[in-house]
Write a structure and sequence with these properties.
14 helices, single chain, alpha/beta, 12 strands, seven-stranded mixed beta sheet, three-stranded antiparallel beta sheet
């Protein structure tokens, strides 16, 4: 099984995880409401046959949990279809990887969108209790500056950098440290202030100078809010230049027990989820996709959503290509921060659909 769909469009680029621009939590096991959503879309994806409704032919509808940042954006169309009566999954949106890991470990959800390092860590903690189904998000992190002093990672030496407190110890911090070291900068040379997204916004907009690290859509929202803020560095581009490979930040996983008990349901879900990512990413659907992303509060409004979607690096990578992409990334994390992936590289059994 190998399906690849990558949408890295023209805008300069998010992890998601920012409660300040994320949605409120709907009741567990339900999707957020989407008033005005139609069960019939121009591409026909509102029909039960095209949304991948698993409730009849493929067993019980899976319970899906997504994060409120870019790793959740691709599910917006799937959520609208669920609210329109053709569910490929019931969806709950949360703001932190820890919530997702706990729900998976407890069997409270079947499938989840989660940070790639958190997926590997949970696989180790649960002794193979989950498998990764697909990579759904590539690099979404940016260094933004109010000023004109930072043009490369090495320029951060000796400077103060505002970073989201809920990314400390997670993918973003590990990526930042690796890129700094790859540029000859000891991370200790950068003074990182760990703040909430709201505090970062205030710091950046209320002063004449400042540097921050943010993911889309929070980065997009700040750029829209303050024209004096500019994109200084795309960490995706910096990673590609350093490693020669993509930066996989988000993925979709499922409980191994659920996969074994519902093989057809998993395949039906993946087909519907791929269509959702395709729909949200397609420029032809920009107006509707932006409305859905804003409606489910992945972005604060349609304007920010429209600018953020092309920067969310939505993708759909499965099979051997998924395994290769993740192994390249995990190998680097194992060398730099082994505890972030559970202390070792995942076994082959972690990768769904790879024999």
């Amino acid at each position: 099984m190998k399906r690849t769909l990558s949408f890295l469009l023209t805008a300069a680029l998010s992890l998601s995880l920012l409660a300040g621009c994320g949605p409120k939590n709907p009741p567990a096991g339900t999707s957020s409401s989407a008033p005005g959503s139609s069960s019939s879309q121009p591409d026909g994806s509102g029909d039960a046959s095209s949304t991948g409704d698993t409730s009849a032919a493929h067993g019980p509808t899976p319970r899906l949990m997504v994060l409120s940042g870019p790793t959740g954006v691709g599910a917006a169309k799937l959520m609208a279809d669920a609210d329109a009566g053709t569910p490929a999954a019931t969806v709950e949106v949360v703001t932190d990887n820890t919530q997702v890991q706990t729900a998976l470990a407890n069997g409270d959800v079947d499938i989840a969108a989660i940070a790639t390092n958190a997926a590997a860590s949970l696989y180790a903690k649960t002794d193979g209790g989950i498998q990764v189904l697909a990579v759904n998000t590539l690099g979404v992190l940016y260094i933004l500056e109010k000023g004109d002093t930072v043009h490369a990672m090495a320029d951060l030496a000796g400077k103060t950098l505002y970073a989201p407190s809920n990314t400390k110890g997670a993918n973003p911090e590990h990526i930042l440290n690796h890129l700094l070291e790859g540029s000859g900068v000891d991370p200790s040379q950068v003074n990182i202030e760990w703040l909430t997204p709201q505090e970062i916004t205030v710091k950046m907009t209320s002063s004449d100078a400042g540097i921050c690290m943010l993911p889309v859509p929070a980065a997009t929202a700040l750029l829209v809010k303050d024209s004096g803020v500019r994109e200084a560095i795309s960490l995706s581009d910096a990673w590609q230049d350093l490693e020669g490979s993509p930066l996989p930040m988000g993925c979709v996983v499922a409980r191994t027990e659920y996969i074994e008990e519902n093989p057809l349901g998993v395949e039906a879900f993946l087909a519907a989820y791929e269509r959702s990512i395709n729909y949200i990413s397609d420029p032809a659907n920009s107006a509707d996709a932006s409305a859905l992303v804003a409606q489910y509060e992945f972005a604060p409004n349609d304007k920010v959503a429209a600018k953020a979607i092309p920067q969310c690096s939505l993708t759909f990578i499965t099979g051997q290509e998924m395994k290769t992409t993740l192994e390249d990334y995990y190998t680097i994390l194992f060398q730099t921060a082994p505890a972030s992936i559970g202390g070792g590289l995942p076994y082959d059994s972690f990768y769904y659909g790879v024999s």
